Amino acid sequence: MEQNKNNRMLEIFFRALRGEAISVKRLAEEYKLSTKSISRDISEIQEFLSEHRELMQNAELTYSHRYKTYILNSDEFLKNKELFALVKMMLGCRCFSKEEVLTLIAKLKKFTTIHDKKKFENLIRKEIYHYHEVKSDCKSVIDNLWKVIQAIEEKRTITITYYKMNRDEVKHKIKPASIMFSEYYFYLIAYKADDIEYKPVYFRIDRISAIIEHRESFYLEREYDFDEGDLREKNQFMFPGETVKIRFEFSGLSLQAILDRLPTAKVVEKNGSTSIIEAEVNHGRGIIMYLLSQGSWVKVLSPQSLVDEIKEELDKMISYYKI
User: Fold this and answer.
1) How far apart are CA 247 and CA 236, in angstroms?
2) Cβ contacts of residue 137 below 8 Å, gap of 6+?
């Protein structure tokens, strides 16, 4: 009898842990016991949680008068507002398949309270229905990520089958060095296995259709190891290039948007509605595309090489519209 009671109490606790609302009446009917017996079980669970608060992460089985059920709460649980923020961010990234997103949301929901769950589900239902992931060449971005992360941790070379921007399929044997996320995509930063100059190459994780892991390991000198924080400051556009200091005028409506987009940017001069901004960035295709996206709000002042590239790009654009 005692063993049956222990098993029953354990099952009730795990139900609560999974986010189920515990109804004394329903459990009494299910186990064919009196409501008093079930209430005693719940009291013992509450007593155990109280005596082992630190071990059980301050979990409490509390009664909801609104729902007439017991609900497990914990300081470690995600609050619904926290879960909502995480899910909205994940949906906005669009980097995972719809199936992966639904699986992740279902798992996250198990670590939150049941309060306002219906409200939460109503808030995201339409967005999930209309969710469209970015086109991917791999079966699972999450699986690819994990394989690459393991290779980075173990310092093992890998061979990837990769689709370039022009859709050519190529194979590269590489030394994986770092993972970054930017603009809907995860990127692998690596070195070609036979490159003695150690020039970093960027690969989109979703374009890797196959990964072969090799037994051979490699060692990266400290100067070639990546500081992800420093890289994120200077390269938000995932195009490789040398670090340069740029200077430009900005006369647009939202100066803060520029400062947010370029973490190293600072205003060095201000003249009415025009600001002179300096920033350290990677001099590559990405920064050119970004500055051009600001239209006439931006005038690049230096370095001259960047000014020339901007002019060349503008000349090409204007030629498309000449009559």
Assistant:
1) 17
2) 163, 206, 207, 208, 209
Considering only CA atoms, which of 207, 128, 227, 112 is closest in space to residue 165? 207
What CA–CA distance (Å, rounded) separates 134 from 101? 13
Contact 276, 268 (CB under 8 A): yes
Compute the distance between CA of residue 41 and CA of residue 18 in angstroms, rounded to an integer: 18
Rounded CA Rg of the chain: 28
CA distances (Å), origin 143, targets 60, 92, 100, 146, 190: 36, 20, 11, 5, 18
pLDDT in tens, 73-125: 776 666 777 788 888 888 888 888 888 988 888 888 776 666 666 677 777 88
Between 99-103, 191-195, 212-216, 218-222, the lowest mean confidence (pLDDT) is in 218-222
Q: CA 299 → CA 25, 222, 275, 303, 319, distances in Å?
A: 72, 38, 11, 12, 20
Q: Two tokens at 230? A: 């420093």
What amino acid occupies position 11? E
Interstrand relation of 185-192 and 169-182 (parallel, antiparallel or unpaired): antiparallel
Question: Cα–Cα distance between 278 and 234 in angstroms, integer?
Answer: 12
Average pLDDT over residues 252-266: 89
Q: What is the mean pLDDT of residues 191-217?
A: 91
What proportion of the chain, given as a percentage, has pLDDT over 90?
34
pLDDT for the residue numbered 66: 81
Cα–Cα distance, 286 to 236 (Å, whole number): 8
